[in-house]
Amino acid sequence: MNPPPFPLDPSLWHATAVPAPDCPPLDQDVAVDVAIVGGGYAGLSTALHLAERGVSCVVLEAREPGWGGSGRNGGQVIPGLKYDPNELIAKFGEEAGKALTAFAGSTADTVFDLIAKHGMNVPHVRNGWIQGAHMASMVETAKKRSAEWARLGAPTEYLDKARTTDHLGTDVYLAGWIDKRGGAVQPLSYARELCRAAQKAGAIVHGQSPVQGLAREGGKWKVKTAQGATVTAGKVALCTNGYTGDYYPKLAQTVIAPNSYQVATEPLSDNLRKSILPYGQVTSDTRQLLLYFRLDHEGRLLMGGRGPFREPTDKSDWAHLERVIARLYPAVKDTPIQFRWCGRVAVTRDFLPHLHEPEPGMIVNIGCQGRGIGLESTMGKALAAYLATGDRKALPFPVTPVKTIPFHGLNRAYVAAVVAFYRMSDAGLA
Question: Where in the numbering of this chain does the FAD dependent oxidoreductase domain appear (predicted)?
Fold first, then answer.
């Protein structure tokens, strides 16, 4: 996939992140137990947990660790999946559904535990995540979701309109629910610190080392990079999500990878900060094309949501988010926008992460679904356990065949049509 014309440089996260770790390009052939393709949360977490098990591994990243979606998301750490606990049980059965629910519920814990364990220099808060109900039919959904998680012991609570308005600082939403396990991180700093932790544990990470070929020879995998150097490994893990290339047949056609657009204001005055999300939560809503927003660690208001599927061409591609800010928080409408950026999200047909094992010794993890910080950090632990032991019980999701999305070549037009439909049906703000 071609890189966007707006690289990390104009991103808020690039401007405020800790310095990048030293990850030189691979310049000579090496042999390890596991080769990991992709230096985002999943690949770096897999490397860290493999190294802690004493398994030798190399991460190959096409640019720098965190360059893709891991350094371009909204920084919200949200536990759970798109499906509620009862839906997971209905879909996978009692035993597997409960195991998946436990996995999904643990994802935020993984992130904050890793930050604490490794002393990561990552601005972060953990005051909870709120989902606001944007229309009357979603009020009951908010009640149901809160109650399902509460029955499992999660610290969740339903919020009526008055309390939702109090927590969010806007009266647009009719109700909501809070999951106190959620929070926020500076996402690029987290990716870079995850990389440092993996390196300290013994993993080797190479940036500027795009993979150009994968081949199995004599029971080993040969992973060839653009500069010609090759990694020989007994096993390979592919963890590339929204920036998946064509190095393995048809893998990129198993997901839709729309751009998620974000803007950030200049730092707000103290008075404005106190009126917006005053208790320090992060939030996203119940729209099909959801809006998500928060304050960053320096007091900027961030607003995110869908935009054009194509790569952005000028500032007008973010104008809808600026209009949303003015509707939600009129007092902020004249505050200048300081940063505009976007990043791709890997979405599967069933809105669940997919695990594939298309050939012996190759495991594929794809489909972050917009909850990649917690989900992919936790998936990395599971992948490492599987790669180290070969026990499929370590994997939270079933291993399925690679199945492409029908007529994938038309996905840009399809996504554009879906975006237009949902904007009409979503009681939109923009």
Answer: 33-385
